[in-house]
Amino acid sequence: MIRGTKLAVAMAIIAMTSVSSSRAEPTGVPALAVVATPESVGFDSDRLKHLDDYMARVVADGRVAGMTTLLARHGKVVEFATYGKSSLATGKPMAKDEIFRIYSMTKPITGVAMMILFEEGKWRLDDPVTRYVPEFANLKVMTGVGPDGKITVEDVKRPPTMREIMSHTAGFGYGLGDTNPVDKLYREKQVLRSAGLKQMIDRTAEIPLKFQPGTNWEYSSAADIQGYIVEKLSGQPLGQFMAEHIFKPLKMTDTAFVVAPDKQNRLAAVYYFNKLAGRIAEAPALPGSGVQDFTTAPTMESGGGGLTSTTMDYARFSQMILNGGELDGARILSPATVKLMGANVIPRNVLVSSNGTNGLRFNEAVGFGLDFMVVNDPRNAASPVGAGTLSWGGAAGTWFWVDPTNDLIFVGMIQRFGGAGGDDLGTLARALTYQALTHPEK
């Protein structure tokens, strides 16, 4: 009996060793530089073809002009595929180094910038934001709309905390909703088209919060506020801080707030669905669209949605998160800080009652950390991903996720406002990726 127990323990140790040895470890070979066969990292090639077929069909059906997808496991690329065209007008094929407007996928990067300063002791999670943004000292909270059509307000009971600023529970608006009076004010005051982050802060301070801090979840301009805080605490412009502390160490050579002249031929065209024509059309042709020209320096470097990037650049950022804050010897954050970013910080009363602008509804299964959405309980969330998976997406249809349980990342890039029309590509990509992961222990 004792002998059998020793044998079982030995077998368990061997099994654990074989699993851990497949994880991404420093080998002198750059991360994501090796292309692995699907079977070598637990995928079934035939089943993985379902992912390729679906994405190719999305392009063939005219829902998007082109696309790239990158799947990696254990720090090795399983698939890096391109589909369709970067521009229907020119017919240029989609390339692996195409540059995309990543919009709200800027937010996790801004969150990392914030946490770099957190690790330097520049701020704490439960600090009131007024400690760093005194312009918010006299914030009001909307209580309703009076008979004269004007917003009625009350005093804020307490300033939002930094934790709430990083989790969209502070109460700020965004200007995305059509009917909310606060969002209308964001559009009227052109908060997100300010001439610099300081002006954005000043305009935001004049608009009431949607709710008392910490009592609800609402997608907001909070990451833009974070960008201002990064500038103030670091003494550097946001783009310069990101370049020095994130992009250069991670070798994200094509990620920036403006596309350099020698790279502009790689900037993919961005589309929307033209109802009159019944097909997609280039977004700049949409009257009043206000599509940002990323070929010229912006008046405001938006921490909430201003970056452009490539599929590989964002994969390197994602792999750094998956590795616990390090990539190819460059440590950006500590493992503890990355875990903190991926821990749900929304209070229980908000988890069970919140319903955000974009239709998200958080609960114990799906929560929100510091600038990432996080899946706490995949099965109750009806999701195939592993526990602790971090994710978000962008307004032009880009998406990504980081799965620490299965040691994999996925980045998908398209350029169409409102997503691909019909099925959500991020959701379908998850289903089609994990149905092909037949040996998750490998």
Describe the protein's architecture and organization.
29% of the residues lie in helices and 15% in strands. The protein is built from 12 helices and 15 strands. The strands form 5 sheets. A 7-stranded antiparallel sheet has the order 2-1-15-14-13-12-11, sandwiched between helices. A hairpin with a 4-residue loop joins strand 6 and strand 7. The protein is globular and about 60 Å long. The N terminus is likely disordered.
SSE diagram, text form:
Elements: H1 2-21, H2 45-60, E1 66-73, E2 76-84, E3 99-101, H3 106-119, E4 140-145, E5 151-155, H4 162-165, H5 181-188, H6 197-205, H7 222-234, H8 238-250, E6 271-274, E7 279-282, E8 308-310, H9 311-322, E9 326-327, E10 330-331, H10 335-341, H11 348-351, E11 366-368, E12 373-375, E13 389-393, E14 399-403, E15 408-413, H12 425-434
Antiparallel strand pairs: 1-2, 1-15, 3-8, 4-5, 6-7, 9-10, 11-12, 12-13, 13-14, 14-15
Helix pairs in contact: 2-12, 3-7, 3-8, 6-7
